[in-house]
């Protein structure tokens, strides 16, 4: 009997260990029957930490918020429990029966799938209008609103977007959590820091308190209808209730998911009528000037010539006009300076290019006037500002004998006769005065011993070099790495030359990335989609993180057309491109 008991215990323990080793991955829904005007919460929950989570396509629903990732670690009597959840909030788009299909996740090298869940969507339901109902009170007393200052701006005219949370009296907001960051496609955006300060106001004619959660200044980079996507938050509030808890409290804590409505901004194109030839995209109200640090100096001394634009407008989104200096002045590449702050009304400050100029010869050199054009959205017309001509007077220094120009623009050249004094060829000697030199016996000379013992000195060096070369050739991985690095630099050599020019750099970088793929994968340009590239690289054994880096580079090239990029960002993208192409070339099969 004891033996049987022991065997039963062992079998039970083995069975228990197998059960505890199983992975749980399931789909949980907040309700299986809901109205078309209600929201559905879907949780994909696992009891192990998994990677490469893939959500299903939510047919019949629109994603209102998510995915929201959360993890919980709980210790109870020395036992650890873990859960990881991906949460989505879905809005039905039609009535009917819809299936939440299988989600996938990779845990310890194995792929696990959830079971499908069917949800029925019925006609819109009447929400209870009972003032004593907590859910009704919260839904009627909390509103997340997107407010914009200008719904019909010009291209590159600033628009301020504010997200306000309106709260009715009687509701106390304890905390809130953002469900994703606001995204602004086809806009240059700048977040404006704001303090969470409660203010009084009205919403739909009723008295509310409100707080501004976020503020952004946007500069549209594309004309037409541009969408401001909804912003979602999870709010924890306390609401007065008719029920008392064990402590006698009449307040009930509720979580509520709020989403602002989608807004559309209609962006107007700048007028073509009257557009100046040198217009570079400046929109706002600006001042323009060209100044020099000095107007009189000696040759080989330096001066600073500054081209500066100041005022209010899209200062970070256009190029300054270039100085046209005389070729007889040595000019260095300009140093760009930016002192711009972004406020609720938009950018303001100044930008400038500072040229270092070094004259080489004596004379007077004019710096011609240049023009700067911008569009004034308030007056709805183009304006052009022109600088004054500046004359640089070089007082002391050599005269430019190749081409000297005086202030009257008259060129005087005078030829001088060459005279000889009979001593020009005095270095040619007609009397050599040659003397005999002593000859050295080759045998036992330094040269003799050098040739005799030299090979014994060089043979060890040659053997060492050959050993190093053999090890170098046998280093297959190192050879592949070096070859991959050379290939990456070959494709990106032209992009490296354009590091100082954002638009040219990203255009050349995108072409280099496409040429590399065309050479490696043998596909045409028309087949270049992110999904196709990811599929082909994955089939050729390229690691997922490397594929993600490559797709990220292509997206950087696309976003660079609409968003500004600093020199640091451009350099970082170039270095990442070299590394990514090198990694693909080593991994691809």
From TrEMBL:
<keyword id="KW-0732">Signal</keyword>
<keyword id="KW-1133">Transmembrane helix</keyword>
<protein>
    <submittedName>
        <fullName>BatD family protein</fullName>
    </submittedName>
</protein>
<feature type="transmembrane region" description="Helical">
    <location>
        <begin position="447"/>
        <end position="465"/>
    </location>
</feature>
<keyword id="KW-0812">Transmembrane</keyword>
<dbReference type="InterPro" id="IPR025738">
    <property type="entry name" value="BatD"/>
</dbReference>
<keyword id="KW-0472">Membrane</keyword>
<dbReference type="Pfam" id="PF13584">
    <property type="entry name" value="BatD"/>
</dbReference>
<feature type="signal peptide">
    <location>
        <begin position="1"/>
        <end position="21"/>
    </location>
</feature>
